[in-house]
Design brief:
The protein is an alpha/beta fold and 221 residues long. It is 27% helix and 29% strand. The chain has a single domain (2-107, 124-219), classed as Rossmann fold (3-Layer(aba) Sandwich), CATH 3.40.50.10300. The chain has five helices and twelve strands. The structure holds cytidine-5'-triphosphate and calcium ion. Cytidine-5'-triphosphate (CTP) binds at residues 79, 98, 100, 102, 104, 129, 131-133, 147-150, 162.
Length: 221
């Protein structure tokens, strides 16, 4: 692959990576979240830093330790916090890889005291969170935008729709079975319609393949 040909192929690339799930508070002890270990995003951040990129990692709650050699590690909880921390830095980066599993909905009311159980049924009203990637897609100037898509069916069709809707340069279609695992199989889809299937392979090697495609886009080759 391209990036193996040089020493620090991503030198001078300022890259923002998001990873992990978000936590949406119901009350002080309960949250709504997504099944995401954060491993894929952390591997991308770790490999990108090794390849010379200046990496900022914005991560939701995970059991993982921040990778060495990244420039900045920002720990957040909610989708709203991830939105704010991402937006703050967008102008000063060359690319964003949104590997985070952002919650689509958050409780309309967050109770400041613990809810006590009573009725047999309980409904919680949820409101939509901001779509971070879609907002970046509207704002982008020269930045390269990479999204992820996890689906249970019609993986590539839905992924391509998200690529267009969010004005992305590339989307990584991810199989649900990968969640929590150290292995992954992905299809990397670009704006020009090209598709590349990678894996099953360890997540660090999948990360390398994604960064290789990013390097091509960045260098315009
Ligand atoms: N994403 C985001 N902000 C959100 C929701 C998702 O930035 N509030 C990003 C994810 O990080 C991912 C991409 O959008 O890179 C696609 O996420 P996905 O959940 O697959 O798609 P959605 O657009 O949320 O649609 P749905 O969940 O209904 O399939
Ligand atoms: Ca979603």
């Amino acid at each position: 692959i391209y990036i193996l040909g040089s020493d620090k192929p991503l030198r001078d690339l300022r890259l923002l990576v998001t990873a992990g799930p978000t936590w949406e508070s119901i009350d002080p002890v309960r949250v709504i979240t997504n099944r995401s270990s954060g491993k894929m995003g952390f591997e991308i951040a770790r490999m990108a830093a090794r390849l010379g990129a200046e990496v900022t990692l914005i991560a939701g709650p995970t059991c993982l330790r921040p990778p060495f050699f990244i420039k900045e590690y920002v720990s957040i909880e909610s989708a709203q916090q991830m939105f704010e921390e991402t937006m703050k830095r967008f102008e000063s980066v060359d690319g964003v890889i949104m590997a985070a599993a952002v919650a689509d909905y958050t409780p309309a009311l967050k109770s400041s005291s613990k809810l006590k159980k009573s009725e047999e049924r309980l409904s919680i009203e949820l409101i939509k969170t901001k779509d971070i990637l879609e907002e970046l897609g509207r704002k982008k100037s020269k930045q390269i935008l990479v999204g992820f898509a996890v689906e249970t069916e019609e993986l590539e069709t839905y992924a391509e729709q998200k690529l267009r809707k969010k004005n992305l340069d590339m989307i990584v279609a991810n199989e649900v079975q990968a969640m929590g695992s150290d292995q992954n199989t992905v299809t990397i889809i670009k704006r020009d319609g090209s598709k590349k299937r990678v894996g099953p392979d360890a997540k660090d090697r999948i990360a390398l393949a994604i960064l290789d495609e990013l390097a091509h886009l960045w260098r315009g080759s």
